[in-house]
Structure prediction request, 235 residues.
Amino acid sequence: MSTIRVEAVPISRFFLGFFGLDHLQLTFDPSPYPGAIPQDTWYTMEGVFVPRTGGLPKLAVQGANGITTLAQVNGNLRGDPLVQAIGPPGSRYSTILPVDIPELAWATMSAYARGINAGQFEYYAFNGDYTNFPTQNSSSVISSMMIQVGLDANSFPSFGKGVTFGLQTYVGTGGDDRITMPTINFSTVSGGNGNDVLFGTDAGVFRSKNYSAATVTINLSGRPVSTFIMAATPA
Ligand SMILES: [Ca+2]
Prediction:
């Protein structure tokens, strides 16, 4: 049976080392049993930092088509050279996600990843409560994709050794999202492009936190909030 894993990859590939962050990625291992097929051909999705001339960098999902391999995103390294570059899965704190049908879950997350790319999100490695900008980074992407298959990355055991910022930010898509704060572990919603509707929840998570500007950020990429419903239940 195929498996989906969430992994922490060596941060040396990224500028994030300064913050001591883990960089997370999702992988899809098509093997009939875990590890039967070399990781070279495993599919992967990860949030990446896309520099822009004359503007803030964008946050995007690499591998959003769902069929991009680990070899492809690592300079087409294969076999031992790939292991030397990113280690074997065990060295990446690889954790198999508990989903019923991995193929369906991967397709669901891939579709959402393409939506994230359409959202044109700006990349913010870290912002504290003292700014009006969210923390919106590669971990936010992973966290938002995992929620689509019913998994809260915030409730998973520690990813690697570094502190991961950004898991508490839920990013929407380029479409007209109807967003309810997924779980109590999320503190920030970023809707991206589109006319998004934000809903309060029965649990009062979003609604109660919305009164504190210090803990909730609503970022709709400069667009006005077309509808902001504080009802207990989504209409
Ligand atoms: Ca949107």
